[in-house]
Fold each of these.
Amino acid sequence: MALVRVENLEKSFKDLKVVKGLDFELETGRCVALIGANGAGKTTTMKMISGLLEPTKGSIVFEGAKQGDDHRRLIGYLPQHPVFHDWMTAKEFLEYVGKLSGLGTKEARERAAVLLELVGLEDAKNRRIGKFSGGMKQRLGIAQAIIHRPKLIMLDEPVSALDPFGRREVLELLDRLKQDATVLFSTHILNDAEEVCESILFLHNGVLIESGTMEEFREKYHQSKIDLVFNQDAKVYLNSISGNEKITSIQIEGNKASIFTEELEGVKDLILSQAVKDGWPLTKYEIGSISLEDVFMKVVQK
Ligand SMILES: Nc1ncnc2c1ncn2[C@@H]1O[C@H](COP(=O)(O)OP(=O)(O)OP(=O)(O)O)[C@@H](O)[C@H]1O
């Protein structure tokens, strides 16, 4: 069942249309990744769903609500650049945010304690936020977004600015959050989306160009892939097989190449025999299934 239904959603800033007729649903209890390059319209879309921006056209309807109802209580939002009062401690900040979102003093205190534990800031709860690392601030930002137990948690690029440790901490936290709520999380890092989310929405220049689950993508683009790494420029060697009808496409990046096919067995044999015949200086030969990055490249190039 859909928690949120977005229909023909549009946003223009003066004459510039940046979100162009989006239609999608956010299923209850799913973790959905909103993927797109810089400027694709991810933040604008999230701000419209959260009620911070008025759509130019279209509708956003929450389950059981009428269009136009105030649905802010259902939503927890972590903006791309959250602002904190650096002089507050994490505990003070969460209790303050809890009261702002309508909790009583006692409940705000109890809820803050539970969330400090959940996001792994229990030991740092009495330290000033100004001294926190980027990862700690993002985890605190997530805690403030869920203090009122929202049904939909929206996180705008929560890991993009973090180092690998901070990133891992926040991704693990996302994994836990999705057990209790629907999560919409924007990113341009495809591996993160693939790791944490069940569903993907691909935004490109304000248009939803593809959506679905990884399984659906694999079925739709029913392709296998062979990854090759050469110890020198791959292009020189692949000319000999590039016109073969069993090969759907070849992507080359320096020493690396990915060969896509719907006829894996035939292409496997072709590559191996060609490699032996021409003495390809291969350092890697691997058969894999397509990744989200492969899907993204395909839909963007369509
Ligand atoms: N208030 C505004 N006024 C005018 N143009 C805007 C405004 N907000 C966003 N835009 C433009 O809308 C487009 C989409 O921006 P948006 O921030 O939604 O993209 P994004 O996918 O979140 O990108 P990023 O990953 O860089 O945050 C961009 O071209 C941006 O410059």
Amino acid sequence: MKKNSPLWRRALFAGRGLWAAAREEASFRTELLAVAAGVMLLYWLRPPLIWWGVGILLMAAVLAAELLNSAVESLADLVSPEYHPLVARAKDCGAAAVLVLSIAAVLWVALLLWQRWCAGL
Ligand SMILES: Nc1ncnc2c1ncn2[C@@H]1O[C@H](COP(=O)(O)OP(=O)(O)OP(=O)(O)O)[C@@H](O)[C@H]1O
């Protein structure tokens, strides 16, 4: 496989990864819906810029973690389709990474709503 392809070609590979995840991973589709809800919440509440920055970072981090988790799962399934405790640990850790970031995102939404509620929305 040729290394160091031009930028447009690497962007095409990345787009293919995004499309594959959106088509085949129910969790990724759920997270895309959650991100859409988060963006709508930001538009509705119009908080200070810092909330937008933190929110965008968190939402991108959840999606990126899910994509990396899918990559780990695909490789694990290729290397060891049979049950193996190390595959279980790799997949469980990948899922845990997504969970940690998702909890942070939910806390961010709760803090945003609480802060706006205190300010009378
Ligand atoms: N080959 C395997 N060996 C050992 N355990 C496995 C194996 N495949 C799956 N598991 C266990 O089953 C869990 C779910 O794995 P699976 O590949 O079905 O992920 P998934 O449900 O598609 O996850 P996600 O929703 O994050 O995509 C893993 O976290 C792991 O504990």
